[in-house]
Specification:
By secondary structure, the chain is an alpha+beta fold. Helix content is 31%, strand content 38%. Among the domains are: 86 residues, Beta Barrel (conserved putative lor/sdh protein from methanococcus maripaludis s2 fold); 92 residues, Efflux pump adaptor protein, beta barrel domain (Elongation Factor Tu (Ef-tu), domain 3, Beta Barrel); 90 residues. The chain is built from 3 helices and 24 strands. Strand 18 and strand 19 form a beta hairpin. About 1% of the residues have low confidence.
Amino acid sequence: MHPASLKTISGQFTNAIMLALVLGVLGFSFEALAQKKKQGDDRPAIVSIDLVKKEIARQSVPVIGRLIAAQSGVVSALIKGPVEKITARVGDRVMAGDVLARLQSNSLKWERELRAAEVEGAQARLKSATTQTELRRQVLKRFEDLKTSAAFSPARFEDARLELAKAESATAEARSQLRRARASLALADIGVANASVKAPYSGVITKIHTEAGTYVSLGQPVVSMISETGMEIEASVPANRTAGLTTNTRVPYRIGTDFKGEAMVRAVVPDENPLTRTRAVRFTPTDASQLGAVAANQSVHLDIPAGPAREVVSVHKDAVLNKAGRQVVFIVENDAATLRPVTLGEAVGQRFVVLNGLKPGDQVVVRGNERLREGQSVRVKEKAQ
């Protein structure tokens, strides 16, 4: 055989041996991988579960309301006169009874002195009339004691009786004048007191309506203020959604993104807006002290119940998977995953209402269910809260 042919045959033989060795190694590797995969498939899948629940559900609709101050408005002058001093500024927080402004009161004080003098004069006249009445009563008594005496004079007795009646009438008139004088003094005291415009409740000054030196009339605005405490929430709710808003019904609300709370229905105002077909509903926050720095007319987002509460079976949203156009869940039975088709209703928070396929107490997989297979063994790591 030609040497070149021998060399060619030898090379082909060597390549065949190398190919066989490579295929043998690859076959061993594939078999090892398959064996490893099989062993991995036999290990339990680690999952988290949640229970199917029977609970009271209430479908809700979002409504935007606003904070309403329990007390706000204008503080007016209770008497007329020039303003002497404004003691409050916009933004000041004041307590009930604090002086906000003062009106000039010199004339009021002297008028009060005049009324006090009239009271003293009326008291003196009443004392004099009372003394005269007592004197006339004693004279009449002496004449009565002389009725059986020869010195008794019927004419003088009748005169004494008339004088007593006259004295009693004068006493009654003096007493009436004293009451009138005291009433005038009380009015003067009120005028002096009202010269100081005081805060009717605790709050914040929002506007000053006058200045020192300005003459104000009775009832003219002096300042405006608003109370920061006792705020309520008012929302215009569609009339067909008010059926579930009975007194003391609790609804969740939030202010911005930082605060969440709960409020109770205080009243549904029986007056429907014909343009929007809504009714005003007032809510009282259950813990108004937690509101913090809020302002009147600030927006509030509420979740209003759309209808009466009802008992439903619900499943957590994370348990629901879509496979081949069907909604399914994995339930854990005897440490194995079982695929269960379900029929779902509306969403209630983080859960779905179950119409068919599950019962209360079923353990459904909420984490680790994406790669589960029917019948695969599982190990529960935790129960979802």
